Amino acid sequence: MEEGFFTEEVDQDKLKMLVELGCDEEKSKLAMMITGNSVDSAATLAMELDLERLLEMVQDAREGGPGDDDEGEGAGIAQVDPNDLMAAFEHSLQCKMIIIVRKDLGMSTGKIAAQVGHAVLGLYKEASVEYPEKVAQWEMLSWPKIVLEAESEAQMDELRAKAEEANICHFQVQDAGRTEVEPNTKTVLALGPDLNSNIDPITGSLKLLK
């Protein structure tokens, strides 16, 4: 991180200018911290920040993961360590692809590898057409991919529905049924590539595939 990129000291006069421009005060504070009190940059950032989500991410990190605990809900920047907020902000800018494998099917390692390959290739082709900017960002970050597990077809269907609702690109593999599973069995669901801040609320509670 460049020196001076993040500062805890907020220029109150510049903050007042942002508020007078119609920016939310709490978002403006964080934007000023991130941009080193640059009014022009902070104004743009303040309009785009999802401060509520960043605060949720900080709370999740403290608790060890997403949950339903509402403790601390409504807390503002003053109650949160700026370094924690900055870490959440940086994390939210990261982009990844999520691959979800149905654990209940009992597929062999080789079968899973083949199904994951189908999912990654299918999603990459689709996302390259529909979301080329996100694909480009993902490629610049060395193509991060995370493989998780779903307990059942019902859970996978629920995750797909949430992805559709959030406008996240997705691709589902339905196997031809020539080897280990019945024809048209839903085996793998791939999501993204998309920002962590968009995907984590959907898949953050899933376990890594083992």
UniProtKB/TrEMBL annotation:
Reactions catalysed: an N-acyl-L-alpha-aminoacyl-tRNA + H2O = an N-acyl-L-amino acid + a tRNA + H(+)
CDD domains given in the database record: PTH2
EC number of the protein: 3.1.1.29
Coiled coil start-end: none
InterPro entries reported for this sequence: Pep_tRNA_hydro_II_dom_sf (IPR023476), PTH2 (IPR002833), UBA-like_sf (IPR009060)
Keyword Ribonucleoprotein: no
First-tier enzyme category under EC: hydrolase
Keywords per UniProt: Hydrolase
Annotated GO CC locations: cytosol
Family stated for the protein in its record: Belongs to the PTH2 family.
Cited Pfam families: PTH2
Protein name as catalogued: peptidyl-tRNA hydrolase
GO molecular function per UniProt: peptidyl-tRNA hydrolase activity
